[in-house]
Amino acid sequence: MEIMNYLAPDVVSLGNHEFDYGLPHLLFLEKMANFPIVIANLYIKKYYKRLMQPYLIIKKAGFDILFTGIITEKVMDSLNQDNLIGSFVSLEEASTEVGKITNAYKNDDIDLTIVLSHIGYESDLELAKMLKPEWGVDLIIGGHSHTILDKPAKVNNILISQAGVGTNQVGRFDLVVDDGTNSIVDYNWQLIPINNKLANPDKALMDYIESYKKKVDRKYNSLVCKLAEKLTHPHRMIETSLGNLIADAFAEIAECDVMFVGAGSVRVKEFGPMITLGDLRTCFPYDDTLRRFSITGQQLKKIFKYIMRKENRNSEGECYQVSTGIEAIYNDLTKKLESLKFKGKPVDNKKQYRICLQNYSFGSCADYLNITQKELLASGQGKVVSTSAQGVLEEYLRNHQNISSKVEGRLFYK
Fold it and tell me: Is pLDDT above 90 for 48?
């Protein structure tokens, strides 16, 4: 947040990771921010009161520009169990909130209207279709799906852009706006790589970051283990060697038949072979509880059919890495789970199987896994097997030197 204050943006909106440490921490961050945060559809539900500033009008280059922001509960994993705070869940309801803002504040003096979203590119396309032309939205600048666009999409006369993830590049729009019609009449979009060819690093900021880095390195440069080879996690929608390693580590401590690891919680594309504590925290930064449940084979098949469906593999769905012993085959053409085996044998509908989930997956199990908390707890066998997934993974790696992991065909699509 201090670095963000140094960069001094004119306006920002919220993404899903601003919610990772709960509501009190989010409100602390907002108080720390020296810049405005806009979000239109985040409410204290009991009082029907917005939690943050819903819009901001900025005067730039002789124009009045209205910014508003939205997020949906689809990407608010960590607040799903907070009964006090909520977002208008669906895109339809989020679009209505945009309409409320523009109807109330978009007058003839507003030359440009921009929605800052963090719902993913495909959802941005759907949102644009729902926004009424009379609301005058000109741009949607999005995030969450890490989409890199060489040129913006245009839906319902609204330009939609996204510039990937991190600080590898920034997106730049050069706009020609007609202040008579309050519309964009011409534009140029560029993805600009951030490197030393573009500009020299800011020395004061580099020194500031270095002051933290020295403190962090003293702890996090310690060596945890050495893998037999580099492991990879190139895409969260497919089985990966790194995802398999993490799922197997958790399955061992949980003593379960199937471990489901949220593929998005693995945050690096390459890992090892030398692993420091800093590497481990970067790879798996979000600590969580691990919970074990007992379900029937029929319910297990229902889960795999749901998480492996093609429409879930769109950069926005919640995909999973699974532990060894599972062989699942899904047919994209027929939209059927053709086969599900455990340790070489077909999963028996009536047999009980023990599964393990991260707590955030349990909190959103109906949406992410197509099984309710009531169903997971029905057997009475629910158990917290670890209060720290990070701690489990660290201990596993420290005690498994030169370990390797391969893509084995645990999840196969045809």
Answer: no
Domain co-membership, 409 together with 286? yes
The DSSP-derived string for 12-23 is: B---GGGGTTHH
Who's near 266: CB < 8 A, 6+ residues apart? 233, 236, 240, 242, 243, 246, 283, 284, 321
10 Å Cβ neighbour count for 213?
12
Name the residue among 111, 110, 118 with its Cα closest to residue 40: 118
CB atoms within 10 A of CB 333: 7
pLDDT at residue 215 in the model: 82
Residue range of the domain that includes 152: 2-193
User: Do 243 and 368 belong to one domain?
Assistant: yes
pLDDT of residue 38: 96
Length of the chain: 414
Hey, what's the torsion of the CAs at 81, 83, 88, 89, to 10 degrees? Answer: 30
**Whole-number Cα distances in Å, 343 to 300, 324, 339:** 14, 8, 13
Which tokens in the block code for residue 300?
A: 């297990």
User: Which DSSP string corresponds to 128-143?
Assistant: HHHS-GGG---EEE--
Q: Is the pTM of this model over 0.70?
A: no
Record the tokens describing residue 411, joined without a space: 């999840």
Q: Exposed, middle or buried, 178 (CB in 10 Å: 0-12/13-18/19+)?
A: exposed
What integer best gives the mean pLDDT of the chain?
91
**Amino acid type, 290:** L
Least confident range of 128-142, 221-235, 304-318, 346-360: 304-318
| Confidence grade of residue 326 (pLDDT, cut at 50, 70, 90) | very high
Query: Based on the domain organization, do 187 and 306 belong to the same domain?
Result: no
Q: Is 258 helix (H, G, I), strand (E, B) or coil?
A: strand
Sign for the pseudo-dihedral over CA of 180, 182, 185, 188: positive
Kindly report, residue by residue over 215-264, the tens digit of the pLDDT.
Answer: 888 888 999 999 999 999 999 899 999 999 999 999 999 999 999 999 99
201 located within any domain = no
What would the mean pLDDT of 126-145 be, rounded to a whole number? 93
* H/E segment holding residue 223: strand 223-226
Q: Cα–Cα distance between 283 and 393 in angstroms, integer?
A: 11
Structure tokens at 185: 């009449």
